[in-house]
Amino acid sequence: MKLVSFRRPDGTPSFGKVEGDRVIDLGRPDGPATLRAALAAGTPLADLAPGAAYPLADLVLLPVIPDPAKILCVGHNYETHRQETGRAKVEHPSIFIRFADTLVAHGQPIVRPRASGDLDYEAELAVVIGKGGRAISEADALAHVAGYACFNDASVRDWQWHTTQFAPGKNFPGTGAFGPWLVTPDEAGDLADVRVISRLNGQTMQDQPVRDMIFPIAKIIAYVSAFTALSPGDVIATGTPGGVGAKRTPPVWMQPGDRIEIDIGRIGTLSNFIAHEDALA
């Protein structure tokens, strides 16, 4: 099943399942009104009563989970990216935090801030938690996954590198693209050979299979849940392959008017254009 968060024609937020070129509304005033609330309620998503049907092309999409309590990101989780950044090998995942108010949906602009022109792309597979828990074992970890989505952990590199702490460069408004939809594990299947690809203005910049992650999804969930309780709707961005713009010669920064796509095979294609902060004021 594919699930999207969207605004109804009257502007109210909801969520629904994608069937071909339509979205079947699953939000209810007397039940879960958002995808995060539906996951927290624990009712199987396939059992939710269908409502109105809308043409997908006519809807304004929202980030897959518009309001996650946590967005946890993994740094340097592909060997190609670790090598291009010169980072030492580590025994544990490198974790940093992104704020929910940085998220933008498929089709919305990623915002280049007025504070910097060093805006980089990062194609990533996002994991959405369906069943919460603490100290989840690797063996049980995948049973806690609601589904997968595309993520662009767009980074303001000079601000990221002001110190050894990543947070400033990862939390400018409008830099975390997340969509277009969530694909449930039964439809996603085995992701090992699925490739994580970014294309900037049609040119492939990153391309590597999920199997090349240094720390696989189950290990990441086990590690993260050891230090913080995971909740339904929490998001884990699992890291980006090598080929980022900052490590090219000369560096390649995303510019206003550019189109960036994150293509993860059957998980979907997330597409955004770049806009300058001043143009959106």
Automatic annotation (TrEMBL):
Metal-binding as UniProt keyword: yes
Coiled-coil annotated spans: none
Keywords tagged on the record: Metal-binding
InterPro entries: FAH, Fumarylacetoacetase-like_C, Fumarylacetoacetase_C_sf
Top-level division of the source organism's lineage: Bacteria
GO biological process entries: carboxylic acid metabolic process
Fumarylacetoacetase-like C-terminal domain span: 70-273
Molecular function GO labels: isomerase activity; metal ion binding
Family: Belongs to the FAH family.
Protein name: 2-keto-4-pentenoate hydratase/2-oxohepta-3-ene-1,7-dioic acid hydratase in catechol pathway
Organism of this sequence: Sphingomonas yantingensis
Taxon lineage: Bacteria, Pseudomonadati, Pseudomonadota, Alphaproteobacteria, Sphingomonadales
